[in-house]
Amino acid sequence: MKVLYLIILLINTLYINGFSEYADYDDRTLTLHGQIINLHKHHISIEPGSHLIIELHDISVTDQLSTKIAQQTINAYVFPITFSVNYEPNEVVHNHLYVLYASIVNNRNEVTFSSERRNEVKLLGPGRTTFVDVPVIGVATSDKDVTTYVKLQEWPELLGRRGEEAVRIIKRQTGLEEVFVVTKDTHVSKDLRYDRVCVYVDDYGIVSQIPRNG
């Protein structure tokens, strides 16, 4: 009987400390604050008429497009850019993985800056993320300024090469760290990231799709 009592007490404690805090958010909107910073060693100005787009995504389901749960769009003038994005707690699933993406688009709807890395955030519970710094990198929309922008690239010449060899070549050419071989059994989130290159290979380890960053 004493053991049963202790088990019941433990379950109640876990509920109070682990799950009940999520119920407190059910009836109110939460806000994630932050700032967009440009860490590039070269100074790159934001084009006049540009907008900053902030998105919160659930990327928990691998090999599927991420689910957007919130978005904010504001005018973008100079770095750093402060933002506040609201989201509904009832759209947040406990233990799911959430990330924040930022992009700056010009008046021609071209992406000129994008998140430098995946910015994971905790949206509910103890340790909830309330403020986040979001580094961005410049994205080239043409061949101009390729020395100061991260150029959108693809490597058709690597089709038919060994996957590991392709990874080494891309890392050497770009300086990117997140370049890796992807097999049919590899789980990859479908979020758009310009700092990443997935090298898809067949059952024999041969590159089967044109590698691209994004």
TrEMBL record:
GO molecular function: serine-type endopeptidase inhibitor activity
InterPro entries in the cross-refs: Pilotin, Prot_inh_pot1, Prot_inh_pot1_sf
Protein name listed in UniProt: Uncharacterized protein
Protein source organism: Adineta steineri
Source organism superkingdom: Eukaryota
Keywords, alphabetical: Protease inhibitor, Serine protease inhibitor, Signal
Keyword Signal set for record: yes
Pfam families for this protein: potato_inhibit (PF00280), YscW (PF09619)
Gene3D superfamilies the UniProt entry points to: Trypsin Inhibitor V, subunit A
Signal peptide extent: 1-18
Family to which this protein belongs: Belongs to the protease inhibitor I13 (potato type I serine protease inhibitor) family.
GO biological process, one term: response to wounding
